From TrEMBL, chain A:
Domain of life where this protein originates: Bacteria
Residue intervals of the Transcription regulator PadR N-terminal domain: 19-84
Record organism: Neobacillus rhizosphaerae
Listed name of the protein: Transcription regulator PadR N-terminal domain-containing protein
One Pfam family per UniProt: PadR
Coiled coil: none
Automatic annotation (TrEMBL), chain B:
Source organism, top-level taxon: Bacteria
Residue spans crossing the bilayer: 84-103, 110-131, 137-162
Pfam families documented for this protein: HAAS (PF22564)
Keywords from the named record: Membrane, Transmembrane, Transmembrane helix
Lineage per the UniProt record: Bacteria, Bacillati, Bacillota, Bacilli, Bacillales
Name of the protein this chain belongs to: DUF1700 domain-containing protein
Length: 105, 184
């Protein structure tokens, strides 16, 4: 799959995964790599960038199994950004689907 | 690769990132690997799923010089061989677009040098003329001075232009070599 394309979609996915519930890194990465084939390591730079841009706030919380985990929480700005991305994505994918349907007739 | 090898390699590639931030990045990966192992993966698998440290450094926007990548020697030797397609492409391009103008300009330089040389030797003709004809000496003197100075200036100018021309050719040659070697 086209790399830039995948990156855009990946961004959308991590934001969506944190909408209902704060997630820690592994959980977030794993839920994506379960469905989309990626090098898991490339998600962390993305998380870092989204955090720097103010879309995520992070905090540490204790875990039962071991050392504390870093959780990602969607900020207000992140929520707005996510809404914008979802809207763009839906318009985009609707157009692509339309083109496919017309072309495959 | 073991977890420690992975972290060491990544740490090495990220040297230009300030230590605090670098430690933070490394700890993200360390806890990721730990979590993956807790969830039933082997250490090898957990590390392999992350991708290479180089990919991660690229993703972080860190410029990594080739010599910093471990195992880059192998890549280097496979990449360094001249690219036959680049070579053929450049050859064709040069034959079609470059050779003609270059030969033309070189010819023009030969003409310019010949003209300058002609101006420089004209005074000799005048001097002979002085002996064989009844030319006024002052007129002849000015003619000699004028043609000689003109010829000399002309030569200097041509030399200057020729130097630039050679420089450009030299630069273009190096560019060609670079392209063929796969520098671009």
């Amino acid at each position: 799959m086209n790399v830039q394309f995948k990156k855009g979609a990946l961004e959308l996915c991590v934001l969506v995964f944190t909408l209902k519930k704060d997630r820690y890194g592994y959980e977030l990465v794993h839920s994506i790599s379960d469905k989309i084939q990626i090098a898991e390591g490339t998600v962390y730079p993305l998380l870092r960038r989204l955090t720097n841009e103010g879309y995520f706030a992070t905090y540490l919380a204790e875990s039962k199994e071991g050392p504390p985990r870093k959780y990602y929480q969607l900020t207000k700005a992140g929520r707005e950004y996510l809404e914008q991305l979802v809207q763009e994505w839906q318009q985009f994918s609707a157009s692509v689907n339309e083109i496919i349907e017309e072309g495959m007739d | 690769m073991t977890k420690q090898q992975f972290l060491n390699e990544l740490n090495r590639l990220l040297v230009q990132i300030p230590e605090g931030e670098r430690k933070d990045i490394l700890s993200d990966y360390e806890s990721h690997i730990d979590s993956a192992i807790e969830n039933g993966k082997t250490e090898e698998e957990a590390v392999a799923d992350l991708g290479t440290p180089k990919t991660i450094a690229d993703e972080l926007g860190v410029f990594v010089p080739t010599d910093k990548i471990s195992g880059s020697k192998k890549e280097a030797t496979t990449n360094v061989g001249p690219n036959i397609f680049a070579f053929l492409g450049m050859l064709l391009f040069n034959l079609i677009f470059i050779i003609g103008p270059v030969v033309g300009i070189a010819g023009a330089f030969i003409g310019l040098y010949a003209a300058a040389f002609a101006c420089l030797i004209t005074p000799i003709g005048f001097i002979i003329n002085l002996f064989t004809h009844d030319t006024p000496i002052l007129l002849a003197f000015f003619f000699i001075l004028a043609t000689f100075s003109f010829g000399y200036l002309f030569l200097l100018l041509t030399n200057f232009l020729a130097k630039w021309f050679l420089k450009i050719i030299h630069w273009y040659w190096k560019l060609n070599v670079k392209i063929v070697k796969g520098g671009y």
